[in-house]
Amino acid sequence: MSTLKSKATEMIDKARKLYGKQVEALVKKEEQVKELMSSTIKKIGKVGKDSRFVKLVMPLGVFIRMIKAHFNGSHKLSTSTLGLLLLGLVYFVSPIDLVPDFLGFFGFADDLSVVLAIYAKMKDEIEEFLEYERTQA
Prior knowledge:
By secondary structure, the chain is mostly helical. 76% of the residues lie in helices and 0% in strands. It is built from six helices and no strands. Helix 1 (2-26) packs across helix 5, helix 3 (58-72) packs across helix 4 and helix 4 (79-93) packs antiparallel against helix 5 (105-121).
């Protein structure tokens, strides 16, 4: 189990090295965050049609709902949590990362591995948010 956590941390650290400064600037720019979420939804639409990725892109939907709830004030997130969620979206939509998207399946697998690492790292906060959503319905 600890090797899985260390792999997740390693993936997140690599993503931070690539996009950390961009995400730090993005945290306070709601309009740019909305554009990022829109780009994420478009890319999900492209890869989501592939049966290999349907369940794997589910965390991105949760990330987007959490970010929306944060900005509309209904469920505030810490700056570090918001930063990690945005890092996941930035890494997913960026065509240039550790394994470029033009490599097809392997490029998307790389993107999704970072998203899933962030999901695993934030599991408790995500469960808390999902419980919040259930109580709002």
